[in-house]
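Chapter review: from sequence to fold.
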Amino acid sequence: MMNREKNVITAVFQRLIEHKEQSTYIEVPFEMPERVENLHIMYEVESHGEGKAVIDLGVRDGRRLRGWSGGARSEFVIGLEQATPGYIPGELAPGSWAVVHNAYKVPKEGCTVTVTATFQLMAPRWLKGDLHTHSVHSDGTHTLEENAAIMEELGCDFIAMTDHNAVSQNLMYPRNKNVVMIPGMEFTTNFGHSNFLGVADPCDDFRVANEGDVHERIRMARERGAKIVLNHPHCDWCPWEWTFQVDHDWVEVWNGPFTERNVRACQWWHEQLVAGRKLVAVGGSDVHRPDPFVKHAMPCTWVLAETKTAAGILNGIGQGRVFITYSPEGPFMELTCGVYMMGDTVLASAESTPVKLHVEHLQAGDQVKLISNLGVEREIKVTNESTLDIEADSANRLFYRAEVWRRFASADQPLLAGLTNPIYIR
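The token string follows.
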């Protein structure tokens, strides 16, 4: 029996095990669908007659045994990056799979095993997290376990481990958390910092003496698959003083509490957009230790990802499917133009379609701005609405992006509460 809901397939299988099959291994075959992100197997055993059946549990894919828990568990999960202890995470290749049972003890009248398989399919969904954090593996005071637990408590989905010039965190992080732990390193020089995201060991030696060395370290990280982020480029204490012509993918325009250094970074980013460049903006808390102002996921980066994995999240960022908020509470922001959204380039044939901004979780007094290469085109002060929809003409524009400004009592001034990446036009 199979049930299909949105992005979830559930199948139930039954197998009668006879007494003569005791002490043998039995397979309950099933077909793994395509594009599965997560497999969840549960089983129940109904004993017939006198005596209690003991049936062990495991699973195989089309190539090998993928896990075994014997009689210790009645269910397990296998995902692309995480799995129940005793099971191997990784690709869930479509094709012939089987739940594997050891008929350890079977009553004379036999028993019936009922297996429920749930397949979570890959599908775009908004995930939120922090792309810049530190731990005891450099100059932070939080352990990796503490960082993960804090992010889970905040309801976040991912955290990037970006300790200064260290990679040991990428080998020792907890594997049993619901938060995706993205490997990374903050390439820290005397004249600027850059995050290398997505690989456990992006470079062999962080030390640099000149700009040529910087290019070489970034080249090595790039070859190993890292995404390159210029961190807090206009910071008062550690700005990016190397050339901005250095190879990079994204720029951290919002680092920690929103202050003048972030204003300068946002202005520099906007100038790049006006000049015709497509450049993804991200944020990160840069948290090191308990602090009244610098906290986990403040700011919070939201990513539309097809899978809840490090690769899925980084791919979503690379596509520009990103907005940033002051905290995990929002506001939630989406920018579209017909079938296009943040990160996309609107084709000439769709130029007459208006750009639409949808915002949720607003507060009275919030200022919502829709901005193009021509400047602020729409600005609305929220009265008592929690949700707002506005639109603007897309013709003869290079891009649109949006901001939400809010007065925070702790700062006694309006500060940025939300920022989208652009939707590009032609």
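Two observations follow directly from the output. Residues 260-274 form the longest helix (15 residues). Residues 232 and 406 are 22 Å apart (CA to CA).
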